[in-house]
Amino acid sequence: xxxxxxxxxxxxxxxxxxxxxxxxxxxxxxxxxxxxxxxxxxxxxxxxxxxxxxxxxxxxxxxxxxxxxxxxxxxxxxxxxxxxxxxxxxxxxxxxxxxxxxxxxxxxxxxxxxxxxxxxxxxxxxxxxxxxxxxxxxxxxxxxxxxxxxxxxxxxxxxxxxxxxxxxxxxxxxxxxxxxxxxxxxxxxxxxxxxxxxxxxxxxxxxxxxxxxxxxxxxxxxxxxxxxxxxxxxxxxxxxxxxxxxxxxxxxxxxx
Length: 256
Hints:
Order of helices and strands: HEEHEHEEEEHHHHHHHH
Largest sheet: 5 strands, mixed
CATH architecture of the largest domain: 2-Layer Sandwich
Number of helices: 11
CATH topology of the largest domain: Zincin-like
Number of domains: 2
Strand content: 5-15%
Strand order of the largest sheet: 1-2-3-5-4
Distance between the termini: 97 Å
Shape: globular
Helix content: 40-55%
């Protein structure tokens, strides 16, 4: 007796297969749509303001105070030798925690208020342009010196660094190198090395990133390497460095 090469698919099984295939296609379309939105978030941000190569995006019209803030960001980041006026930086100002969380993904629960993606796009938690402030995860206003202009400049510096050195090499650097240099540029201030070393030896609260949420310790080390050791920014960020070794060297320095 001749047997069929394959048994016919029962109607119920065929329906289940077609349903599973449709669900799979729908999920694939949703993932593709989300990835497209992550790479190009502009559809969710109806308004934009461009100053030089900095483009701010928001869901509401920009008040007049946005222009001097953007100009101040450019003043700070253009001091860096990594600044490239031909490379555009997109910064998205998120007016709700949920919108920020959509783009920060796994980092949205962190204490941080900003996030830079692998795409180079930067996102800022809820903010107030008129007051030049950013609100933390619990709704508190960040310290005055850590203004909206500071946070934008910090994230743009991350984006400039990753663009210059490559995202994978940049991701392998120590936290004190990446965060310290971003703060060094974003604050645009003179770091008192002797005073910083005293605070480091005294284990001052601001010298603990974990306790304070600040990068003062990292900024101090970067300032020491750039100003005292005379390293270039390329030398600072070209390969991972030992934080402990730099700290020992700073503590032992006698000519700060």
